[in-house]
Amino acid sequence: MKLAILGAGAFGTALAVALSANGPVTLWGRSTGWSRENPRLPGVTLPDAVTVTDDLPRAAQADTLLLALPAQKLNDFLTANARILRGKTLISTAKGIDLTRLTGPSQLIATACPDAAVAVLTGPSFAADIARGLPTALTLACTDAGRGKVLQHALSTPVLRLYRTTDVTGAELGGALKNVIAIAAGVAIGAGLGDSARAAIVTRGFAEMSRLSARLGARPETLAGLSGLGDLMLTCSSMQSRNFRFGHAKGARQDFDAATTVEGAATALAVTGLARQMGADVPIAAMVAQLAQGSVSVGDAMELLMNRPLKEE
Ligand SMILES: NC(=O)c1ccc[n+]([C@@H]2O[C@H](COP(=O)([O-])OP(=O)(O)OC[C@H]3O[C@@H](n4cnc5c(N)ncnc54)[C@H](O)[C@@H]3O)[C@@H](O)[C@H]2O)c1
Ligand SMILES: O=P(O)(O)OC[C@H](O)CO
Q: Does residue 193 sit in helix, strand or coil?
């Protein structure tokens, strides 16, 4: 298997470092003038087994391509480069739902590149942890069980342990939806509402994730696994998370760097659209969407959530 990673942000670069333990890896980015240390992943020097290039056709000579681009940028990239990507195995790592099409990355790939094989790599993992070689477990999802097994083995290393599933829908929804809930958890902590409020948001957020995912055909056990609950726990509990930090800044009424990738903001809006289509109740995502758009204050949002009609758990 010849491997390339498309997208030289923090996560693409971290995956290149980790997977170079198994053999040569090509890392493609739009602007790669930084030589062996990517400013998006400071303090990490790329091993010799990683070749960095801004030449997409060269990188796409590999048969297996990991797509490490933000969810809202993926469709334009796929459509612009569909010819180059034809017939490849394309593995998405994006954790979001496309705001225009209301679909996850696997459906974007299937539409733009219909003859590509599709898989998803997701789960609890900070780029900095992976790049430092800290032990991490992820989910590799592929509807083709045989191909999934081959990819699971090819992309596991002694410190990167992949579990596999055929539930692509569940795996990518878990990764996308947890970012929305992490923003809400960050808001609660940033606003000084306390750890009990955070626990309530995480638990009710998981209920919301599970409800919507079930309507969309995901399996409950996938949501309860690494790609859902596992990543929800990580992202709602760490200031390493950009989604959590974004929410924290909102809650604390502080500025936040608009150039930072915060997948949960656009995904919250997409989730409210999807939930409307599916007749699912997603009060936390609706609150995050309004907060991200600035159409409700933190105080009002929390009051609205607390004053919903009382119901069974
Ligand atoms: N950083 C993490 O810890 C982490 C962990 C797991 C998954 N992810 C997911 O990986 C995805 C990427 O996140 P990241 O942390 O690498 O983000 P990042 O902001 O560090 O990097 C994004 C990269 O995408 C590139 N890019 C944007 N638009 C592009 C386009 N049209 N064509 C080519 N390149 C383009 C940017 O130049 C940048 O290099 C997100 O969906 C994120 O949720 C991130
Ligand atoms: O920094 P975040 O919030 O994008 O989270 C990174 C990863 O998705 C955590 O698994």
A: coil
